[in-house]
């Protein structure tokens, strides 16, 4: 009985820490695993079982293949060709979304959204259209497409690996297409013909108007040249700066907030402003006001303005900017920070970074070279060092290899993990990808989370928590029928995936659905499909899935925009998935 209550309490604590973003998931989840090992709820063998799981290993190899295709720029060129001319919003969505969904069935959806967000923003600026009509559909289309194949999303591979580990057959390469293709077709119809009426139109004239919807926080220091030293805020006219609001004054390390009009200004005061991104650079036109970077250093020479989003996997997460060695690490300085629905009142250097924070950077020439793919999601056009001829060929060869690999797996000639390994080896041997790039392409933190989640799944089973939840699920839905059980499994998984990573949600739900399948004598594969689809189908919030977070800031969205556009799609996906699972697997 102790194990039951202890496991339940630890899991609730883990989910609370993940939801509140107290620390990185790759710290919280392994720490939870260690607690279960030390308490004896799971053995060491069970704790490390995830590190040799076929699904987890396949995901690591898939990162290499998808990264090779992505770095070549072949995908970028393809979609730039689709947007050469001006189209209406509906026609542009018709041209864009179907090929994007098809592509995301075979390539990880995160790099697709990273690549297309700046392309779509620039195209919208050139043709006087609102990016807010395009970027949520972009994210949702990649999520839908990822449900079509076994390699479309990491969640599918994780559930496949769990099925194999539990003595089940696992998924065939296109088995999920029975559900994936219908929900993608229905979803695309919704995104093209209905969603534009639910999405905001926040850019009538230029992208600057989208940017102005987002409040950045920046910092300026008063020097001895300031003409209004020892005068009040009102006399210095600092309340009348267009697009900016003076939030606080930092004097001798102590904040003065709120700032009254009668507050006097002294040399060395650091003024914290919040407001329109486009006006921060104008602060330096005021004599004696020096725009400050994150750590007070000079801006890089030959600089450019770059806007980035802190990724879910960034090594900068949960650190103060001044503690990250940002200038020397990236050849860039942070001059402003934006956090959705929050007005920051601290110095830039004291800001603790969270996923989704948007940084306005003054970047030097080496910025692109020093930036790893996991650090940021780019939201503005940025330099990319690409040898177009060689990388174009590399991308083509990688696509051909991927197609050959898919054919061999589909025909049953090779198992998935072997085909992936052979493809990755060929890419390496023919120098289409080098060891450093492999290290950058693989998202090690994602693999760590997935591997550790397997051990937590064992804790759910060993402690009896999984069977308890399964019994509760059966008692509440069995009188209604099997279809109700499928819907409940879907809903519970969907709630979990909004609270933690999609792969972790799938692993936690798997022992529960295995208990349900055994008790109800239904196909484990049927409920496993429900878990795989529901864990990826995060449409209702910007924080549940990383592609939603990437487009959150660039589209000028508010939280409610995802609810308006996402809830109908979530409902359509849930009902369609449940009916198709009942039809094909029951």
Our measurement of the CA-to-CA distance between the termini, rounded to an integer number of angstroms, reads: 35 Å
How much of the sequence is in beta strands? 5-15%
Largest sheet: 9 strands, antiparallel
Number of helices: 25
Helix content: 40-55%
General shape = globular
Keywords: Membrane, Repeat, Transmembrane, Transmembrane helix, Transport
Transmembrane segments: 6-22, 56-75, 96-120, 140-164, 176-199, 396-429, 441-460, 472-492, 526-545, 566-585
Organism: Rossellomorea aquimaris
InterPro entries: Cit_transptr-like_dom, DASS-Related_Transporters, Na/sul_symport_CS, RCK_C, RCK_C_sf
Structure in words:
With 586 residues, this protein is an alpha+beta fold. The protein has a domain at 2-203 and 442-585. Helices cover 55% and strands 9% of the residues. The chain has helices spanning 2-20, 25-38, 44-47, 54-71, 74-82, 89-104, 109-126, 135-145, 154-165, 177-193, 195-198, 207-211, 233-236, 326-330, 367-370, 388-410, 416-429, 435-441, 444-463, 465-477, 482-499, 502-520, 524-536, 546-552, 559-585; strands at 215-222, 244-251, 254-256, 270-276, 289-291, 304-310, 332-338, 358-363, 376-378. Strands 1, 2, 3, 4, 5, 6, 7, 8 and 9 form a nine-stranded antiparallel β-sheet that branches. A hairpin with a 2-residue loop joins strand 2 and strand 3. The protein starts with a helix and ends with a helix. Residues 204-213, 295-301 and 381-390 have low confidence and may be disordered. It comes from Rossellomorea aquimaris. One of its GO terms (molecular function) is monoatomic cation transmembrane transporter activity. This is Potassium transporter TrkA. It holds the Pfam family TrkA_C. Residues 205-289, 293-377 form the RCK C-terminal domain.
């Amino acid at each position: 009985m102790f194990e039951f209550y202890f496991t339940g309490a630890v899991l609730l604590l883990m989910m609370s820490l993940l939801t509140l973003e107290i620390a990185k998931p790759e710290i919280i989840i392994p720490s939870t695993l260690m607690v279960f090992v030390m308490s004896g709820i799971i053995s060491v063998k069970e704790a490390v079982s995830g590190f040799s799981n076929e699904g987890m290993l396949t995901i690591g190899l898939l990162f290499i293949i998808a990264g090779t295709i992505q770095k070549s720029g072949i995908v970028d060129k393809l979609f730039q060709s689709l947007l050469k001319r001006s189209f209406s919003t509906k026609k542009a969505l018709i041209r864009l979304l179907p090929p994007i969904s098809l592509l995301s069935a075979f390539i990880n959806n995160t790099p697709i959204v990273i690549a297309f967000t700046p392309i779509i923003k620039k195209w919208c600026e050139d043709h006087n259209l609102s990016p807010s009509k395009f970027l949520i559909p972009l994210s949702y289309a990649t999520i839908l497409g990822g449900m079509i194949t076994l390699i479309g999303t990491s969640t599918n591979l994780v559930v496949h690996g769990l099925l194999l580990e539990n003595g089940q057959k696992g998924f065939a390469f296109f088995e999920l297409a029975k559900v994936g293709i219908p929900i993608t077709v229905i979803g695309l119809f919704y995104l093209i013909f209905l969603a534009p009426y639910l999405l905001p139109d926040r850019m009538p004239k230029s992208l600057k108007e989208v940017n102005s919807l987002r409040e950045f926080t920046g910092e300026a220091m008063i020097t001895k040249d300031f003409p209004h030293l020892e005068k009040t805020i009102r006399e210095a006219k600092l309340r009348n700066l267009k697009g900016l609001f003076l939030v606080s004054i930092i004097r001798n390390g102590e904040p003065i907030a709120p700032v009254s009009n009668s507050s006097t200004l002294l040399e060395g005061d650091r003024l914290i402003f919040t407001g329109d991104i486009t006006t921060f650079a104008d602060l330096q036109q005021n004599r004696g006001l020096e725009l400050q970077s994150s750590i007070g250093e000079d801006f890089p020479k030959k600089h450019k303005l770059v806007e980035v989003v802190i990724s879910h996997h960034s090594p900068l997460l949960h650190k103060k900017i001044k503690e990250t060695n940002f200038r020397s690490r990236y050849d860039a300085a942070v001059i402003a920070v934006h956090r959705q629905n929050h007005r920051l009142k601290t110095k830039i250097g004291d800001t603790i970074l969270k996923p989704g924070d948007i940084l306005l950077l003054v970047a030097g020439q080496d910025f692109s070279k020093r930036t790893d793919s996991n650090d940021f999601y780019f939201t503005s056009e940025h330099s990319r060092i690409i040898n177009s001829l060689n990388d174009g060929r590399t991308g083509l060869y990688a696509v051909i290899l991927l197609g050959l690999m898919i054919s061999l797996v589909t025909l049953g000639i090779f198992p998935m993990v072997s085909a992936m390994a052979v493809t990755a080896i060929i890419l390496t041997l023919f120098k289409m990808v080098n060891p450093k790039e492999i290290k950058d392409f693989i998202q090690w933190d994602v693999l760590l989370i997935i591997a550790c989640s397997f051990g937590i799944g064992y804790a759910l089973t060993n402690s009896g928590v999984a069977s308890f939840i399964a019994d509760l699920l059966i008692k509440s839905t069995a009188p209604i029928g099997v279809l109700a059980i499928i819907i409940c499994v879907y809903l519970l998984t969907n709630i979990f995936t909004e609270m933690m990573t999609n792969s972790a949600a799938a692993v936690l739900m798997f022992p529960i659905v295995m208990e349900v399948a055994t008790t109800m004598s239904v196909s484990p594969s049927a409920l496993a499909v429900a878990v795989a689809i529901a864990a990826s189908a995060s449409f209702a919030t910007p924080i549940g899935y990383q592609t939603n977070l990437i487009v959150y800031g660039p589209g000028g969205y508010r939280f409610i925009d995802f609810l308006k556009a996402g809830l109908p799609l979530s409902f359509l996906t849930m009902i369609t998935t449940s009916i198709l699972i009942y039809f094909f697997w029951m």
